[in-house]
Amino acid sequence: MKPPLLLIGHGAHDDTGAAEFGRFVHRLRCRLDQVVADVSGGFVAKGRPSLSDSVASLVTRGHHRLVAVPLVLGDSDDVPAAIARARVAHPILTCEYGPALGASPQVLALMAERLADALAEMPRLASVSVTGEHGEAPWEPVSPAETAVVLVGHGSSDTRANADVHRVSRLFWETHAPELLTVETAYVADAPPSVAQGIERCRRLGAKRVVVLPYLLFAGGVLERIWAEALAYAAGHIDLDVRCAEVIGDCEGLADLIIDRYEQVLLAAEPPACEPGSDGAEPLAGREPLVDTEDEPLGAVESWRLDAGERVLGIAGPAVPEQELLEAVGEQLSLEGFEPARGAEALNASRAAVAADSPEGAESLDLVGSVNGVASLGAADQDLLAPARPSVRMLPRDEAAMADGLV
Q: What is the pLDDT of residues 194-226, one digit of tens each?
């Protein structure tokens, strides 16, 4: 079974939004049954369940690794901060998470579907009167060039968040509505222009039909405010065809996007595989251990981490300068606090001690130099390096020489 999927919502302003979020979590739970260990969800800000409660519930059920996917459209510092707090509260928890949905092609495609639904509610070529109230002139069709869209975001005091909504408007216009007159941007709160101001701009540009398109995931109080402002404006401008589109909502298309993000996060968390022929070395699995002149194995690495490290050491690849070798090994093993200079001093000391008894032993140090250099560090450093250091079986040597530096 794959690790649990945790959906992170920014916040639900009322019960309607929280209920739709819960229905979407249930949809994913049904879609991923027998594939993913569990599917849960929680909110960072307002709404229940909270993210901390959802994480605690997963840990209580025995899960110590999870994949978190933010179910939000815009980037927010709240999500990483909430995950960091969860890790502090549960030290044994491992969590990988992906980016916000943002202006992904799938999100834009779902918004285009909502726009098409709004335009299809009436005949494709709707008509508006071009004469006065008592005129008898014929009705004329409204063309796409006379149709505009007002994309409405929530609005924020953060100018970067508002700029992201403008970016989405431009992307949506160019990728899914290039035949329309314009796609304008408006906000519900905290930033101008308002919904009414956005519609008025479209009317002044010559639009005869305006579709208000919410840039929201789920319904709730915010959507009701958008519709209320749009309909209030339409009541005072009966010559303008104003329509309101739905939110993206709980749908299969959104579920497909979340599952795709989940798989991407899992794939990014997998260790890199060594492909044969990529650098002249074979993959670690199935490789015969190298032997010395007495046909005894030099060593067997027990972890995939050392696959790249072997090549750096020169066991399965060309030799490299000692300083570069030590730096590369420290990087490959991701060892915090590993200092190449200290490793070089330990390596030289070990080589000098062994050379006094056996020149061949000194030569063998060149082959596994960085491993011996690491092994010759102090006890405190040994504890630091222990989790990532490979188990190595060295050539049979004199016991005194081994005590001087070999492991």
A: 999 999 999 999 999 999 999 999 988 899 999
Task: State the pTM of this model.
Answer: 0.63
Site of tokens 């102090």: 378
Beta partners for residue 214, in sequence order: 152
Q: Of 125, 114, 166, 152, give the one whose Cα is nearest residue 230.
A: 152
Q: Tell whether 273 is covered by a domain.
A: no
Burial of 182 (0-12, 13-18, 19+ CB in 10 A): middle
27 burial type by CB count under 10 A (0-12 exposed, 13-18 middle, 19+ buried): middle
On whether residue 90 sits in a domain, the answer given is yes
Final residue before a domain boundary, out of 228, 244, 260: 244
Distance, in Å, from the CA atom of 280 to the CA atom of 276, rounded to the nearest integer, reads 7
Phi, psi of 127 (to 5 degrees): -130, 150
Using a CB cutoff of 8 Å and minimum separation of 24, what contacts does 35-39 make? 35/1, 35/2, 36/1, 36/2, 36/3, 36/4, 36/5, 36/262, 37/1, 37/2, 37/3, 37/4, 37/63, 38/4, 38/5, 38/63, 39/4, 39/5, 39/7
β-partners of residue 8 are 42, 70
Q: Does residue 85 share a domain with residue 123?
A: no
- pLDDT tens for residues 233-264? 999 999 999 999 999 999 999 999 999 999 99
Element housing 244 (H / E): strand 241-244
* Positive/negative CA dihedral, 371, 376, 377, 379: positive
Q: Is residue 44 within 8 Å of 11, Cβ to Cβ?
A: yes
